[in-house]
Amino acid sequence: MKARDSVCLGILATIFLFYLLTIRSGQPWPDDFAMYIQEAKNLVDHTPIQHTNYLYDPYNPALGPRLYPPIFPLLLTPGYFVGGLTDLVPMQIEIVVFFTGILIVLWRGLGQELPPFEQAALLVIVGFNPVLWAFKDSIVSDIPFTFLLYLTLFLANDITKDLTSKAWRIWKTLGLALLVYLCYGTRTVGIVLVPALLLCGFLYKRRNGGRQLITAGLLAIVPCWIQSRVFTGDGYGDQLRLGVLGFIQTFVHNLVIYAWSFAGFWANPYTKVLRDLIFAALTFLVLLAYLHRIRTGMRIYEIFAPLYMIVILLFPYPGGARYLIPIFPLFVCYFLEGIEILRCYRMPVSRKTVLIPLLLLVLFSYGTDFVHSTFGPFRDGIEKPESKELFAFIRTQTSPGDVFIFRRPRALGLFTGRSAAVYPVTGDKYSVYFRNVHADYFIEAPALDDAAFDAFLANDCLSKRRVFINADFSVFRITQADLAACGNVATASTH
Questions:
Q1: pTM above 0.85?
Q2: Dist CA 381 CA 164 (whole Å)
Q3: Angle of the 32-44 helix axis to the 409-416 helix axis, nearest 10
Q4: Residue 366: CB partners within 8 Å, gap ≥ 6?
Q5: CB atoms < 10 A from the CB of 396, how many?
Q6: 474-477/465-469 β-pairing
Q7: Per residue in 172-181, pLDDT tens?
Q8: DSSP secondary structure letter of residue 23
Q9: 474 burial via Cβ count (<10 Å: 0-12, 13-18, 19+)
Q10: Domain residues of the chain, as ranges?
Q11: From CA 108, how far away is CA 158, in angstroms rounded?
């Protein structure tokens, strides 16, 4: 084993242990995790995956679709089988394993195009990033998706350089098509890999691997289409009805949001100036490397990155750092390449003269961020005593057929077995929607609720009976007659 490989393996082992030993128990309130766990639970219990307690609200589609794609819930089933709903740590351990897998694929893939010192820097910068470290606790699909994504890109790039036998190339093509589907089956945005492969295949059509990429892209369409027909609830159609002007406004708005979110990967608790300087310097190097790659021969990476960014920039509900996780490792690879490209412009600097100061600044930001990070259990969310008390009351004091209105309906449905929905975005839809879903209870959570819902609950025309209260939540019993008498209470939403 080469010395540089030993160093990289040591870094990988250190990151894995660091992540494993700093897992935080519980889950915070944003409840995407609950839908994934619900679907994993259905798979373990041999229940149709579509049977959830989440009542989708078309007037508030930003919360999430009726159903999430099936691959990540399938991957969660071992962790759920071990821990169930009482111990989420086995599923969090799975996330740590997938994150380590990302680093391994980067090291053996893109990292092989870097000098030894830069390979180690790649693992350190990606592996110890505080933003990614924080996501290792969240049972959501982004990290597993990123692992599958880079495995797919690695294989596609390898095919363009493949000189193996025809039979082996066929197996690689089939494997690539399967990986593309797994990406789509983990996160719907994975469908951008299909046009990425087709475009890359067109560029390589007269060279080795072009036909294989096109074939793999076309083959991947079949299982993606089948999933879209079978899992009809995993679409985002209600969120995309914007019109041309709406998409333009969304693009401009998201461009600003994601620029700040990208800068946040380099944040420290002391000064924003250092964060912005690091981000500006690294972005300059990234652009150098990206333009150099375009001039010298585009790879699948250079095609995928802009396609992915266009999709998330046009999506009306920005995901911040979470949606940038798939791009961040590639960003780091580009800026490491950009340091070498500086020498192509005859700048009198060595690689390490530029890299070491940047690396020290990055590690300083990381270190100060970790010093101010919380390493214990989540202070808010499902493990908080008030939340457990709420769930226990609902399980024991309400009927299985009751319907609840709550800001986090998917978590409520998972931990209580009751049907739950979120309220509409605007107050003028409240009464009609609540009658349509036959709501029986409202849950007031001042720390979570929108102002419009608080105003609706405070309206004198709404007859309600409080049946539960603690420091964080109040539960009100309501009847359909009360809602009909109240009518549509129009209130301004701050959602």
A1: yes
A2: 52
A3: 30
A4: 128, 129, 130
A5: 8
A6: antiparallel
A7: 999 999 999 9
A8: P
A9: middle
A10: 385-486
A11: 11
